[in-house]
Amino acid sequence: MKTLSIILGVATIVASNLPVLAASVPPPGAASCSGCHSAGAAASVSRLYGRDAGEIVTAMTGFRDGSVPSTVMARIAKGFTDDELRAIAAWLAAQK
Amino acid sequence: MGISHRISRRKFLGTSAAAATALTFPLPAFAQAAARVVVIGGGFGGASCARALKQIDPKLQVTLVEPNKTFTACPFSNNVIAGLRSIEEQQFGYDKIAAGGVTVVAQAATGVDNAARTVTLADGTSLGYDRLVLSPGVDLRFDVLQGYDEAAAAKMPHAWKAGEQTLLLRKQLEAMDDGGVVVISAPANPFRCPPGPYERACLIAHYLKTKKPRSKLLILDAKDTFSKQRLFQNAWKELYPGMVEWVSLSQGGKVNAVDPATNTLITDFGNHTAKVANVIPPQRAGRIATSAGATDNTGWCAIDPVTFESKSAPNIHVIGDACLAGAMPKSAFSANSQAKVCAAAIATLLSGGTPTAPKLINTCYSLAAPGYGISVAGVYQPKNGVLADVEGAGGVSPADVPREFRAREADYAQSWFATITAEVFG
């Protein structure tokens, strides 16, 4: 197998493929957002794909500390650290 | 892309020096096909997962096995029972999923041979897989409550799978004279949609209050506590005073047997004869999960909390109501969240990677009346081998808030249904 793998020598292709896959795999928590926040949402519910990442982080930290009033979002935002929120926001911002 | 995929899937490592040469070699037949993922069950879990797999890695051969051409959604089906919504608004097809490159097979899966990695279909043909996803939902148990079998369900509907049963319960309520007693029998945990029986009680009470105000609604419960309990009980007092009565397990609420001939529900403490009886029986994972070797002695499926891979059947992943997801409730929102995490984990595994620990969210809305919504939410992560609540997060709507808050949550509930069904089927 090792010989075959060297002959096939696909490391460059693998290397070019994996980041594509990695980029499309959402960071922890991000995949759940679209259940409420994608196309079809009422005007009162924010659509998050393609939204500015900074706005998303500001909103989530505001929900979390209570400075931005909410119904359910405070309960959800409290489940995430600053780093997690930044990663989620960056991923959402990159989606179409 | 195809080459890189199959190579990485086989965990080949090597240098790039001979890449051009490599392409001239005939490749083994098994390596030429893209990885095959079969998803069994076209509900919120399975349909979401099939779509997510194709979105994450378009090269995957994804097959969705679902015998029904039309899916009838359970969330909001209590509104149909209460005459507030049509069944057609609950129904969705698979055309858009097929148009996205998922092969939709309109047959029942009758068996799984995980050693051979094949799924047998109702017509006797079989499908091979590299990874199998089971999202079979629940089977209602017709072997627990004495007298409650499928024939009894035609007289005393469960309405716990949306469709004909939903309409049957609605017709029975419409046919009932004012002053009748409606009885709901609620099962012990775990079961599909933990707040569902209590939302149903609210919306049936709304119908009775509006059309048949001398009627009563009795809930016979096999539990002493239930989801969003304080909020529901407050709503019963506030909205339906004197109409709704809840009998807990310790008060003798557990139904042991039924007599469909007389519409009687039998507990240790006595008999209750109903004009309309809604019997929600105990449940278990859909039976295909047992064929696949994925159920344990509880009748449900233990899973790895990172990948949703079965703890007893390698290469088989279980999502949605059928799996034991720790603190996550059996809800459409959970199934959809799990589906997307599971799809990403499968794509990572098939490309030779190691999935990292996910976080998942659930939000369940219930309506206590039109325009009166309440919710429970949670955030979950793997801990000690199960999905556990992230401490400090989640919980239910506040108890003492103005009706405007309830109205907003009712609006969000409607919006959620529109959004999630668009994501899954639209």
Automatic annotation (TrEMBL), chain A:
Q: Name one GO molecular function term.
A: metal ion binding
Against SUPFAM superfamilies, the record matches this protein to: Cytochrome c
- What are the entry keywords? Heme, Iron, Metal-binding, Signal
Domain Cytochrome c intervals: 12-96
- List the signal peptide residues: 1-22
Q: What is this protein called?
A: Cytochrome c domain-containing protein
User: What organism, scientifically named, is this protein from?
Assistant: Bradyrhizobium jicamae
